[in-house]
Amino acid sequence: MTAIRTEQYKAAAHQGIADKHLQKALSGFQHRIAPATAQRYLSHGEGPQIRQMGHAIRMHAVEHLDRLLAELADKIDARGGQVFFAEDADAAVAYALEVAWQNKVQRVVKGKSMVTEEIGLNRAMEDAGIEVVETDLGEYIIQLAGEHPSHIIAPAIHKTREDVGRLFKEKLGIPYTDDPPTLTWAARKALREKFLSADMGVSGCNLACAQSGHITTLSNEGNIRMSTTLPRVHIAFMGMERVVDKLRDHAVLFRLLSNAAAAQKMAGYISYIGGPRQSYQEDGPRAFHLVIIDNGRSRILADPEFREILCCIRCAACLNVCPVYGKIGGHAYGFTYTGPVGAVVTPLLVGLDRARHLFFGETLCGACKQACPVDIDLPRMLLALRRRWAEGRKTDGFAGSGSAIEHLAFAAWAEMVRRPSLYRSARQMAALSQVVLPHSEGCLTRLPFPFDGWTRGRDLAPLSRRGFVDRWQERVKKRKGGS
Ligand code: SF4
After folding, report:
1. Ligand 1 center to residue 458 CA distance, Å?
2. Can you give the pTM of this predicted structure?
3. Which of 84, 146, 451, 482 has the most Cβ atoms closer than 10 angstroms to its Cβ?
């Protein structure tokens, strides 16, 4: 498993906000991509309800995973491929290393895959003396920089082109340039040699299909197709939820994925892979392995409140609209999955106690649900995680516990909002007493403990002397007087 740094979320978020360089790299990207992807949805013949169609397809698959995975495995097996069900990250990595040793693999070329990030595959292979080369341009950049991806689709979004120019000068020995086509050409030249000499190709899987018995990969660079066809061995990794029932489901989901990920009608390269090279085929690997990874997903599947997160197609649309992600960047989330989807799925995978800051850190603005191409209700699950944490419910993997002060504060709040007169007096008292608090330009600049966190990064508008109920009553009175 990759390193889990979710406990450092708060410190890393503060650091990200203060990092002018990161802010420069992130600025504008959300404004560029989010409106373009939203426009794409409008062009479908099915109308806006295509998102609900996508949701229904994914939910159907999630609820029938046992049958669909068995069908997929049988069909790949019948074509001479080997399927391994890995209970956790260690089992998946051990299987991959065994395959590599058996095939005397020295060099691996790899397509972008979040699940291999999750299980920490690169590190394990490198520790075993195997060279691993990322071939997606963004992944290649961060591999050269010795970093982790900060975005699901655009792993190097936190880097400026000047950063990449300096990195390529240092690592590839080319003259400094920040011209994107020249940099891309330099990467392509360096990677070509690796493709031609690699012993094994590693890929992820966007969505598999039980009916046809294939895994599928989508890319715009063509690098995945090179990784999966040139080397003599191909090993693919997929989270156990990444399968759908029928081939026709792909027609809906791949349009949605391409729209949401890159504002495209369809990705440039779509490959269906169902086993090793057959006798009638001229190219392709001699051996094909598919590793289907659980690593905590069965636990999520068993929980009706959170099962919906398994519908995710990893398009990153929720990251592209999230105001929190847009300020703190992806590294602050401390695990493979970032943004709103990371704030839900990471705590479910690594434990609420280790990753609670992630679901408390989101704003619940609802933009992620609106942007999600398969209409996943992320805000509902963020709230449900907060509730579980506050309740301190202990079930397998969910060992949350709210603080005693918080329990007391919310019990008092619940009592107060049930009694309008008490609520009104408390509000008036608060409105009167706030005059002693530090002010600037009509705003409160510092609240006392334990509310000081609210004003650490921003000023607050003061409480109005007259509350909503008073204003409403006044308005009703005026209307009545006027009629
Ligand atoms: S939750 Fe929705 S928007 Fe976010 S990555 Fe998954 S499918 Fe895309």
Report:
1. 29
2. 0.89
3. 84
